[in-house]
Amino acid sequence: MRVALVEDNPDLRSLISNHLRSLGIHVETAATGEDALNMIDAEVHNLIILDRGLPDMEGLELLKILRDEKIKTPVLILTAKDGLGDKVDGLNSGADDYLVKPFEMDELVARVRALGRRPSEVVHPVSRLGNLEFHAAENKITIGSQEIELSLKEKDMMESLMRLPGRVVSKASLQNILYGHSEEGSANSIEVILHRLRKKLMQSDANVEVRNLRGIGYLIKEKEVKTK
Ligand code: CA
Fold first, then answer.
1. Residue 73 C-alpha to ligand 1 middle, in angstroms?
2. CA gap 88, 140 in Å, rounded
3. Residue 179 Cα, ligand 1 centroid: separation in angstroms?
């Protein structure tokens, strides 16, 4: 799951992001409405956590811009105001849920998990290519009776590639999906993850391969059968 967190309070921002990251959730953060608009990507984020009181705009104003842009990503509003009117405002503006500050971290996590489960797009639980089956929800691939566990990053890479086998995924978008804007991730670490993923594919009897088209990106495809 990938969360976009928009919160201007630095303490609360790191408290929330550290907690979610410790649960294996990817978090990208923004401190202003403007940064948030640059960061939020409907293709990347499954959930937006949005503070109402931002320095440059009202959170609800930002939410309206997102909804006007047809971004349907679920939004959890964080609000310091607990009046019923505010609550209704938030939900009318297209928010999916709200949480009143101060809140317990467990409560936040419960809401995040519930909203993150609402699929913004249909993802097939198991996708197949050649003799390989990719089980995204279980972080693994299977080839016949062989099971190969994937790390979180390997799974993310596989997920991006398996969306459309044979189609090139650019290095920049892989970097964005795996590391976001706010996390450290050099072009080099993409290569490292790719190397590990390829090794796993080679060590099993997968008849698929990940190709690196230099300067363009990566794609996954069935191996061509070589005839002598
Ligand atoms: Ca605030």
1. 21
2. 42
3. 25
Q: Name residues with Cβ closer than 5 Å to ligand 1, which is an ion.
A: 8, 51, 53
What's the CA-to-centroid distance between 57 and ligand 1, angstroms? 10
Distance from Cα 66 to the centre of ligand 1, integer Å:
19
Taking the centre of ligand 1 as the mean of its atom positions, its distance from the CA of residue 112, in whole angstroms, is 19
Is residue 193 within 8 Å of residue 153, measured between CB atoms? yes
Name which of 61, 34, 30 is nearest 48 in CA terms: 30
pLDDT, tens digit, 9 for 90 and up, residues 100-118: 888 999 999 999 988 887 6
Query: Exposed, middle or buried: residue 153 (CB in 10 Å: 0-12, 13-18, 19+)?
Result: buried
For the chain, which domains are there? 2-116 (3.40.50.2300), 126-222 (1.10.10.10)
Measured in Å, residue 9 CA sits from the centre of ligand 1 at: 6
Q: Is the pLDDT of residue 205 over 80?
A: yes
Amino acid at position 102, single letter: P
Statement: residue 61 has pLDDT above 70: yes
Is the pTM higher than 0.90? The answer reads no
